[in-house]
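Why should sequence recovery work at all? Because a backbone constrains its sequence more than one might expect. Tight turns favour small or flexible residues, buried strands favour hydrophobic ones, and helices have their own preferences. The token representation captures these environments compactly. In the example below, the structure is given first.
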């Protein structure tokens, strides 16, 4: 096994949860390993990102966005992100292991017949439509980012270049130049802004052409020459393509985004409609984040997606929420016990104690002149995250209750603590309990 992180990978595996195996993929900033869940035996893929290599590249935001996006996507034709783990130097994406490998590997051996191309295209459009309905645009759709599972079904992966609606400017368009040259839409080349949904449709068109033809519609050793072909929409369909497929491709690869076919419009196209069945599924079946215990228990379970928020080397605190002026610590006491201790500490200090709906306690004193809130999150079966935020008044009386009464008791359970405001301003050592270092 290659060197990964001695403190994270021991004989028992990654964080004691995953046994790492062979490398199944490699990029400039990451490697993907086959792995096995030690407890369940489930096969997974672990994408290992080197934080040091990200420094100075401006790609840290892409990683943060990829985590945020993948944690929201629960579709049978999209690779599922199970959890994210982190150490001081590495980030670990734990994802579905898709046994069939890249679609690119299959198509490189020869083109597909139209019926098979259509089947894969139906699945691709189902996944893309789902993403768009959640305000997510992939922006790098290509056969290398499409995998095949053991049932021969297509799975979309690699959301590192994806965009969300929050990135749309006041003109209603996205402006970041990205994508793979041969699959990029002409409006991206014009550098005047573009609609994320429409550029995904263009890329889907290029993918369909490749599936049915076995080669790219726009290709040239000279990149600028290729871009000119894309900009002008210069491509030729091979003679073996059916007339209906040729007409459909002309709608997908329309250089004018305003007249290019939409996802809804595809449902009316003769070639697309043939054999089409809407992919129906229960989204909850694909969700990996859930609460522990009965629904009436309000304690929040922190899935490992949230572990990344504790990584000072790559601050993703937005996934945790704006901590404001406060502090976080990890304790071995149960969430229920922490809330009980907070209530007792507040009552002992003659503070007004108010239990919050979900997972916290609000403490106020001296007619509301000072106060703070305590929230708890179940990290694992043994560990609880405690987050404390000042919500009003002077910090001195707050510290008297928090520092002297409550915090000292919580730290008696092998915990780690740090100030969340300082975390956003300077580099801090990661806690061993949280990040696994």
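From this structural description, the recovered sequence reads:
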């Amino acid at each position: 096994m290659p060197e990964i992180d001695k403190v994270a990978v021991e004989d028992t595996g990654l964080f004691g949860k995953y046994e790492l195996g062979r490398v199944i993929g490699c990029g400039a900033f990451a490697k993907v390993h086959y792995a096995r869940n030690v407890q369940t035996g489930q096969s997974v893929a672990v994408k290992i990102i080197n934080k040091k290599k990200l420094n100075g590249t401006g790609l840290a935001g892409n990683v943060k966005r990829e985590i945020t996006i993948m944690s929201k996507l629960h579709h049978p034709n999209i690779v599922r992100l199970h959890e994210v783990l982190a150490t001081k130097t590495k980030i670990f994406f734990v994802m579905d292991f898709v046994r069939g490998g890249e679609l690119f590997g299959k198509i490189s051996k020869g083109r597909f017949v139209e019926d098979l191309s259509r089947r894969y295209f139906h699945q691709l459009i189902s996944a893309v439509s789902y993403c768009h309905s959640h305000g997510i645009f992939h922006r790098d759709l290509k056969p290398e980012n499409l995998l095949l599972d053991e049932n021969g079904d297509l799975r979309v992966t690699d959301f590192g270049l994806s965009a969300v609606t929050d990135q749309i400017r006041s003109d209603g368009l996205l402006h970041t130049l990205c994508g793979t040259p041969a699959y990029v839409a002409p409006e991206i080349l014009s550098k005047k802004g573009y609609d994320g949904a429409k550029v995904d449709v263009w890329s889907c068109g290029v993918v369909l052409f490749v599936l049915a033809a076995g080669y790219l519609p726009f290709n040239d050793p000279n990149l600028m020459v290729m871009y000119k072909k894309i900009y002008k929409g210069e491509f030729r369909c091979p003679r073996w393509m059916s007339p209906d497929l040729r007409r459909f491709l002309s709608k997908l690869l329309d250089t004018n985004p305003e007249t290019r076919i939409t996802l809804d419009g595809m449902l009316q196209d003769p070639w697309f409609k043939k054999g089409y069945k809407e992919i129906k599924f229960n989204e909850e079946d694909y969700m990996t984040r859930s609460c522990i215990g009965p629904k009436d228990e309000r304690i929040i379970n922190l899935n490992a997606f949230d572990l990344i928020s504790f990584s000072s080397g790559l601050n993703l605190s937005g996934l945790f929420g704006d901590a404001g002026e406060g502090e976080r610590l990890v304790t071995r006491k149960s969430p229920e016990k922490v809330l009980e201790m907070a209530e007792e500490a507040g009552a002992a200090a003659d503070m007004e104690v108010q239990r919050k709906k979900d997972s916290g306690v609000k403490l106020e004193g001296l007619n509301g002149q000072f106060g703070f809130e305590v929230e708890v999150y179940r990290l694992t079966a043994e560990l609880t995250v405690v987050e404390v935020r000042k919500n009003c008044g002077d910090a001195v009386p707050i510290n008297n209750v928090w520092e002297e009464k409550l915090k000292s008791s919580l730290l008696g359970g092998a915990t780690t603590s740090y100030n969340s405001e300082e975390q956003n301003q300077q580099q801090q050592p990661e806690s061993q309990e949280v990040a696994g270092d």
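A few observations help interpret the result. DSSP finds 14 helices and 18 strands in the chain.
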